[in-house]
Amino acid sequence: MEKVLETARIICRESLAPLIVRLRLHSPGISAAARAGQFVMLKVREGIDPLLRRPFSFHRIHPDKGEIEVLFRIAGRGTLALSKLGPGDPVSLIGPLGNGFELPLDRTTQIAFIAGGIGIAPLGELIAQALSGPGQTQKAHLFYGARSASELLPEDIVSQFGLRVHFATDDGSFGYKGRVTKLFEEFTARADEDFRPAEVYSCGPLAMQYHVAKWALENDALSQLSLESLMGCGIGACLGCALPAADCGPGDDQRFVHVCEDGPIFSAGSIKWNQILIQQSPPPTYLFS
Ligand SMILES: Cc1cc2nc3c(=O)[nH]c(=O)nc-3n(C[C@H](O)[C@H](O)[C@H](O)COP(=O)(O)OP(=O)(O)OC[C@H]3O[C@@H](n4cnc5c(N)ncnc54)[C@H](O)[C@@H]3O)c2cc1C
Ligand code: FES
User: Fold this and answer.
1) Which CATH architecture has domain 111-228+264-288?
2) Is 4-97 a CATH 3.30.565.10 domain?
3) Suppose 66 and one of 28, 102, 161, 169 were both cysteines; which one would form an S-S bond, judging by CB atoms 3.0 to 4.6 Å apart?
4) What's the 240 CA to ligand 2 centre distance in angstroms?
5) Is the minimum distance from the CB of 157 to ligand 2 under 6 angstroms?
6) DSSP assignment of 168-237, as one string?
7) pLDDT tens digit string along 197-211?
8) pLDDT for 75-93, tens place per residue?
């Protein structure tokens, strides 16, 4: 698919939580081609600070208006600078990039969306598409967790997504106390709830995604996981976003996939999770609790 380099203008900036900002951008070329799950490489401003573009998923896509929305968490220099821009300011975008989500063709399939922290961002457009149109998905639940209530989008915003939402926070300050994947596993095992998703869509930290992948593989569910990786270029040139693939290359060598070009959406079975966990040493409390 053709990538577009476009100078977008900010139409609207909203602060939704202490560190979470939503931007609506006028970007007609990119919005016309964008799909849920794809992303843009965004340069906050000309010059060397910050030097590299940063990846952001499409939170919503409005091709009819020539607009896109991004939802981001202030995590460092680039996102802090971006959070200070406002209506009329230009930002340079390259996109749409990556492969994107695919919704099931059979709209009676039960599906689960699982978001950890700012992983809610790409699920916004996917959920909107799943719930719209004549063949809309009949049974879909969103499981949405964060470290604490202040890192969640406000409940009234999430309720606008239009599906049943289950909240979790690690510290118990809102919803279920504990990991969102634990809440998901407990809910799907409940006899009084007729919810056995045949497909899961998720986005969040790799340690969370490991648990989603494990559940999907053990329960024979299809899965589409939006995976994160540090990205230098976003277009397959720097090899900075490599993750170990489950299958091997020629001569039994380890094969790598690139999140920017082969992903960011991967099935649970396509990634060598054990190797990532060893390399990245995520918090052991998450992995083994
Ligand atoms: C395909 C893709 C889509 C993304 N979509 C979104 C989105 O919609 N909304 C959003 O808020 N964030 C998203 N991210 C993460 C976002 O790109 C980073 O938070 C951002 O680049 C941080 O830039 P910074 O200059 O503010 O932080 P930096 O100063 O560069 O780093 C601050 C901290 O953020 C971490 N970080 C930097 N880049 C990434 C990254 N790519 N993934 C995870 N952690 C990172 C660093 O390790 C460091 O701890 C996405 C990442 C990818 C790979
Ligand atoms: S980010 Fe450069 S190759 Fe993927």
Assistant:
1) 3-Layer(aba) Sandwich (3.40)
2) no
3) 28
4) 5
5) no
6) EETTSSSSEES-HHHHHHHHHH-TTS----SEEEEES-HHHHHHHHHHHHHTT-EEEEE-----SSSSSS
7) 999 999 999 999 999
8) 999 999 999 999 999 999 9
